[in-house]
Design goal:
The structure holds 2 protein chains of 2 kinds. By secondary structure, chain A is mainly alpha-helical. Helix content of chain A is about 70%, strand content about 5%. Chain A contains 21 helices and 2 strands. Classes of the chains: A mainly alpha, B mainly alpha.
Amino acid sequence: MQTAVDFPILSMLVIVPAVGAALIALLPKRRPELTKLVALISSVATGAMSIWLLNAFDSGDSGFQFGSKHPWIEAWGISWNLGVDGISLFLVVLTGVMFPLAIVGIDPHNEDPTQDKPYFAWLLLLETGVMGSFLSLDLFLFFVFFELVIVPMYFLIGGWGYEGRVYAATKFFLYTMIGSAFMFVSILATVFIAKANGLGKVTFDLVELADGANFAATTGRWLFFGFAVAFAVKVPIFPLHTWLPDAHTQAPTAGSVLLAGVLLKLGTYGFLRFGLYLFPEAALWSRSLWLTLAVIGIVYGAIVATMQSDLKRLVAYSSVAHLGFIVLGIFAFTSQAITGSVMQMVNHAVSTGALFLLVGMIYERMHTREIAKINGVQSVAPIFAAAFMLVMLSSIGVPGLNGFVGEYLILIGSFLTARWWVVVAAAGVILAALYLLWAYQRVFHGEPDADTEKFYELRLKEAAVLLPFLAVIVFTGVYPKPMLDRIEPAVAALIAHVEDKTGYVEPQPATLQIDHDEEVDGDVDEDEDHGGETTEVPAEDEE
Amino acid sequence: MTDVIWLIPAFPLVGFLTLLVFGRKLGEPGAGYLASTMVLASFVVSVGVFFDMLSMDEHDRSVVTKLFSWVPVASLQIDMAFLADPLSIAMCLFVTGIAFLIHVFAIGYMHGDPEFSKFFLYLNLFVLSMVVLVLGENLLVTFLGWEGVGTCSYFLISFWHKRDSAATAGKKAFVTNRIGDWGFMLAMFLGFEAVGSVSYDVLNGAAAGGSLAESTATGIAMLLFVGAVGKSAQLPLYLRLPDAMEGPTPVSALIHAATMVTAGVFLLTRMNPMLAAASPWVLTTIAWVGAITALFAATVAVAQNDIKKVLAYSTVSQLGYMFLAIGSGAYVAAIFLMITHAFFKALLFLGSGSVIHGMHHEQDMRRMGALRSVMPITAATFIIGWLAIAGVPPFAGFWAKDEVLLFGLAKSPVLYAIGLVTAVFTAFYMTRQVIMVFFGEAKWESLANEAEAPEGDEEHARGAHGEFKPHESSPIMLFPLVVLAGLAAVGGIIQLPSFGIIPSGLRHKLEDWLHPVVSFGEAEITETAAYDAKAWLALLAVACAAAGVIAAVMIYSKKKVKAIEPQLLADGWRYDSTITAFMGGPGRKAFVALSWFDKNIVDGAVNGAATLVRGTAGQVRKAQTGNVRNYASIIGIGVVLLLAWFVIVRGVL
């Protein structure tokens, strides 16, 4: 499972941004240009390493690769334990690529240049936290990084945000902290209960726990619930979503982009890595709840988005809807749906991240995000409008662009096990068109007014930041195979693990052997295979 | 040639990409020439493939070209692949052929538009999407084109986006399209669950082989029908089509008459074994929806005064006929009517475009009249289009409509009767239009007087010095009209019936060609009483057409009878306004209520809880404003030290 490599790539990915943050802390604050240079170098280096990782990743291997394990607190079985598989790979690359773009491409607008220093330091520390969360295979280490993420984000919103930033930052902080408290209790309980049930020793090692622990059904469900609260807040899942519109709206552009791009994925990633993997029985048992909340989120988020008057809030609520799709796919327990969910985590990051970038650019030009106050932009800045249009179509899920592939996989895979949820969720596709096109019409169409005349066209630097986003949107939509090939083995392994632990059987579509010019083979099972009914949740766990 | 079918979409793709990069540089008319050439090249390839296929054995006329694996996950394997078979090539031929003519027309029509090259960029993207739609080897590739044409339609309807009505109409088109897409998607899911594939070959094979449960086939067929209703503007989703007339007229001709709106008919024809395997009520539903839509839209067309609105409702009505044909199991007749309709409706739209152009963007027919003298070629070609749609033999529409009605009678006499009444209305409203536009007295003289008034100066379109004179269009616009008029006149030749006087070698060409694709679902009616009476039926149809024409002449030309144009019909039975009122009223209120709920109940609960712990919040706020730097450094240094410990003590790196 562990690949021996000479270069400790994963540890480097976590540590390099932190080194950058430390260096910035040591630099004199009168030298903002040096600060930015350090931020640039460390984030770009991390990005380059993540690309290297993508290239070196063995797509055929379903296990954890590039493992790096060093003891930390041996008595408790806590260790520095990193690894990457198909589920985390693209999230790591995404993090590696998005941070330098946010650092290079988005001006923090500090009136006082000395404020650049903490800004970049926080951003880099945030990167360490996110990278660590995606790579940790140790429950304790994961918790440390998961918590670390909250602090820089809190300061970024509170320090560099807009008018309501203090309220938003506090809300974000309290919400996520309360969620984390549940998780912390659950982590400790998991480890000690696992010791008594099958493992015989104290360890925080994720793989050992997942393979060796045999929780009683009720116990597992309680433990799962503790994790689930933390992740549900992070995703966010309805009705725990209300911190998100405030945080998104009040955060500085870089904060919104990263929040949408990588932070929210900690929740959905957590569900996969620590929910389904550690507690397959509990996840399977509670799936109806999550599916229902996911579908509510899809429809509810879209409807509330339609009624927003602030562009950023609109995009924030659209995230609630999009994340609903991802949660739906995760709890559908089929290869297509979970693969689609992992892919959609990346897609959502790209398209919503790009939307926040574009809204940030609109704010810089118009000094407002009020939809009603902006008119006729398309006439004044057609290239900007075209970029916005492409990103919007990706977010709507138009085939040929990235958003569609993920959404399609989620829906078609979920149809096998959660048919009626999908029937409703697919209607969310209509609503997505409604709120985005309506907003587009109000902002971009129509006659430009006097205010719009000052709306300048996309600048070279802005275009350079947007271009990677646009390229990924088109490429992934047309040719998703390389990505799917890397995700799928890990998802298959996860489902195999669930099947192994619970006796669940992934429903397969009926396959027909079509013999041309001849009659179709008669031995095909004609009974409609309602996946939901084949799901078996055994309760044979030993007490 | 069949191994290069990928060239058919490749040409418009190249055109699109070139215009994307160099469009502005090419400008007018270069961009138009480039786009037209690309579509012409596609047409030439289609013709080549057609002749190539003609030389093949009937059973070999199905060639799959796989480009690459598109969406492969475990048991789901979807290829980006094209299928060349008689149906897709027939579609390609008329789609690219008519699209080429419309491109050429648009070079003249869009003359002087500041976004000339952008228009052709969209047009090429549209043609690309449309050929992907028809060439798709599986439902997903078709869906790619399906959504692509919907998106292009959105772009093109709202092309003149500064006009609020255009922007709104574009959005409406996209959203109503999506309602249908919901059905299309679920049909794919159900198909995948049942047979593990979304490829036409497998799905239709399972349906034809009888290995698919009837309930599954029924579900798939109904959901596809929902998709088709959305795309092909049938009741209750026809709403967007009349509004789509906000787009430039070539768009109306290309998208909202000749190609995109027929996609639903194509899809159902493509899936005809599935429809046949479904419960019989599915076909009956399709037939009834088609027949009612046909009649409904025809009645509305009678009272419209906008030259394009008449044609828009007429299109909805004709599409209804096509659905009636499909519901009656007459797939060949449906495709036949689709192709001939593409000829004459494209002709009529382009003709109306020529009129609008010549009238300086006046679209109200009440301000036209007697234009045949100033626009002779437009008038002559328009009249051929009128004869074709009205069902006058030997023009193309007659043969196609006759065949649809024949199958309709075999299905149910009531459907036949609705079809006949619709035919009367069709002849009536088209005659009314021709009279109002090209005959009678010239109403535009008064426009000239209006234009002399001071405020007329702003109306740049009305010409300098208050002179208003309609003019004939330029040759580049007339050329497509003449070609289409020729096709509308003789297009019936592709599917002549078995009448005694027609040489047997010329009969049923289209039926023979499509046979491999539709043989499973096609209804067999040669044994029915309706078939025996087909000569009488044809006469009856001609009589109906004549009745409609005569009635319109009496009312609008001879003025013997006072016109009855109830406001209810002019308002389209108030269907649209009712929906709008609902969406703007209770619908919107529900949305507002939900966002109120979110703000005050869901978030309110959170804030309420937060008030309880206000102390904590206050502490945090103090930390935020007071000791940010201290707090920051503690956490920052802590983490960095921890990481340093890992590196140094534990040798992590």
